[in-house]
Amino acid sequence: MNLATYLRYWRLNFLTLLEYRLNFLMWVGFTIIYHGTAVIALWVTLHQFPSMNGWDFRELSLLYGLWMLGHAFHNTFFFTIGEVPNMVREGGFDRFLVRPLDPLFQALTVPQQIWPDELAMAIGIFPFITIYSGVHVDWFYVIFVPAVMIGGALVDFGIQLTVATLSFWVVRIDTLRWVVMSLEADFTRYPISIYTRAVQLILTFALPFAFMNFFPATLLLHKTGGGFAFNAWIGMLTPLVGLLYASLAYAFWRVGLRRYSGTGS
Amino acid sequence: MIAPYVEFAKKAFTRESTYRVEVFSNIGSLIFRVYLMRSLWTALYAHNAAPPNIPLHAMITYATIALLMSLVLEVDGTRSIHEKLRQGSIATDLMRPINLPLSFFSDGFGMTLFHAFTILPSLLFALFLVHIDVPNPAAMLAFALSFALGYVLNSLINFLMNMVAFWTLETFALQLMVRWTSDLLSGQLLPLTFFPGFLGNIVQNLPFAAIYSAPLRIYIGDLSPKSYAATFETQVFWILVSGAVAAFIWSRAQRHIVVQGG
């Protein structure tokens, strides 16, 4: 039943796409510029400095491609969770509580102009990145990459859900979302081995962005050494870490929700 | 004559100072960025030959000063055009006996002044993480002048951007696009001299280069005192060009709104 509702939600999204064609084109342009400028900056940097802790531009492009997959998946299916702090502040969230549908489900299906352009781009460009990076492609690669995409998206979702849940306690939290998002963009762009050990630990355990791309890419490219002494097979854990992280965030969300509806504020 | 604009600036200053949480998160994310770029450039210099003219300490200085400059340059005073158009209040604004673009700029300047104050604590925190070179007084003065020119140019480009709202009403995506492009092409992310060959020639001659690259290259000593005059000239040139374009579009935009209202 929820699935039918969800499909309807996507039908509406596609209908808005047809209605606001110019807006859609603008956001496509935005997506291209966002990723384009990031990759060009990376290319220019690597042109001047050919090795980043033993990673060259080809390998970094795989790092970027893997992140882009997970992040775009999150942006497409979970993006509206970030609107929760605004809704809580303006009181719109209370409406969710009186409807006979799960509040999280409702938060994930807020009608907004959400279009799958970034995800389509990420998936469309990934085969080219695969060829360019010279990574070895076998049956494992074909199964593993989609799993990393979903696992990475769940990591992203877990972090955004945690931020959203904080808004049940702290009212003005919306800027935190953008701070976290820009940190994510920065921390996933380079191999985490360039950071100090403390930051590497944070990126592995607290805000596990490293599972979105660094560990899987290390595994796929057979990189050794360079900072973390973990076994390369840790990259296999991405889907599991994503599930675990999202579940923990969901548990936290339940606690926050109970508290929020309990006080009736 | 100038009194109302001073008032606009004052109002904007007090308005900005009410968003304290935003200020803290701005400073916080800046400190993160300083750490991040220190790690990045240190790793890059450790594994590769240093580029000519820019040793590691100059690069770290460059990136830190660029981040501090962005606290001021990322304030967009003319963004309110968008809201004014959507709500229609631009009509009454146009009837007032003031120069509207000037009022936008003074509003932006007030906001900027407030954010300029956040540079100081940011700088203090940044100094815990990195060491910054300090140039001689003459270069410092030249940097200040060049930064001011870059600020004017940046405001004009923002103004141009926001005027698109007169025609499209939706500008958010466009603004962000210009922001990302400008971050890359202005030298905020990395020195424009890193762009190879032909590409380098192009980006160094675009107007964006006059915003971050010019003052930063003066600061780190990549530009010698002999070329200061030419640098200022280029900056003034771009200010005049974008000013003229902005004035032209503004006159068209005003007519456009009259047509819409009629």
Walk me through what this model shows.
The complex is a heterodimer of chains A (265) and B (262). Chain A is mostly helical. Chain A has helices at residues 2-19, 21-48, 57-77, 84-90, 93-98, 103-107, 117-133, 139-166, 174-187, 197-206, 214-220, 238-263. In chain A, helix 2 packs antiparallel against helix 3 (57-77), helix 3 crosses helix 8 and helix 8 runs parallel beside helix 12 (238-263). The mean pLDDT of chain A is 88. Chain B is mainly alpha-helical and 262 residues long. Helix content of chain B is 76%, strand content 0%. The longest helix of chain B is centred in the C-terminal third of the chain and has 34 residues, at 228-261. The radius of gyration of chain B is 20 Å and the shape is globular. Classes of the chains: A mainly alpha (265), B mainly alpha (262). Chains A and B meet through helix 2 and helix 9 of A and helix 2 and helix 9 of B.
Question: Number of helical runs of chain A?
Answer: 12
Quick one: overall form of chain A?
A: globular
User: Which pair of chains has the greatest number of interface residues, and how are they split between the two chains?
Assistant: A-B, 35 and 33 residues
Task: Give the biggest sheet of chain B.
Answer: none
User: What value does the Rg of chain B take, in angstroms?
Assistant: 20 Å
| End-to-end separation of chain A | 31 Å
Into which percentage range does the β-strand content of chain B fall?
A: under 5%
Beta-strand segment tally of chain A: 0
What would you call the structural class of chain A?
mainly alpha
Distance between the termini of chain B: 32 Å
Q: What would you report as the Rg of chain A, rounded to the nearest angstrom? A: 19 Å
Q: Given the C-alpha coordinates, what overall shape of chain B results?
A: globular
Instruction: Give me the strand/helix succession of chain A.
Output: HHHHHHHHHHHH
Helix content percent band of chain A:
over 70%
Q: Strand share of the residues of chain A?
A: under 5%
Give the integer mean of the pLDDT values of chain B: 85
For this structure, the quaternary state is: heterodimer
Backbone structural class of chain B:
mainly alpha
Helix content of chain B: over 70%
Low-confidence stretches of chain A: none
